[in-house]
């Protein structure tokens, strides 16, 4: 089935694609910079999920149904290499990981907000459902980063 996009939908989908590209880059680069291997694993996984968002947006822009409710086969993780540089950085303080987490949390908050707008500006139900789905994913990413930070005493919740 071909989806006929409105001009507005095309515009916000193009914008969202740019944001997803930024997210992919951030998660990939940061996963190679953080000290804690556990955090590296989380960021690497989230990079893959952002790539899925990018693919969903791309499919919609081609006028095709991304079929977001059909589970996709797991992609191999291409971001697992640990370089010598990482190990050198390992002796640095946790503060750097905290700054990275805060940046990612802000990014997710911003991006989730833009998807909230897109939900209201969607005309096609398939587009709306995809925006809701991706927004929820971004909220889950935020939750995952927050939970990590909380477990490491990196945030003040009082
Ligand atoms: Fe995303």
Automatic annotation (TrEMBL):
Please state the span of the N-terminal signal peptide per the UniProt entry: none
Q: What is this protein called?
A: Spore coat protein
Keyword match Protease: no
Name the CDD domains for this protein.
Ferritin_like (cd00657)
Transmembrane domains' residue ranges: none
Keyword terms, alphabetized:
Capsid protein, Virion
What's the superkingdom here? Bacteria
Q: InterPro entries per the record?
A: Ferritin-like, Ferritin-like_SF, Spore_coat_CotF-like
Q: Which parts of the chain are coiled coil?
A: none
Q: Does the keyword Cytoplasm apply?
A: no
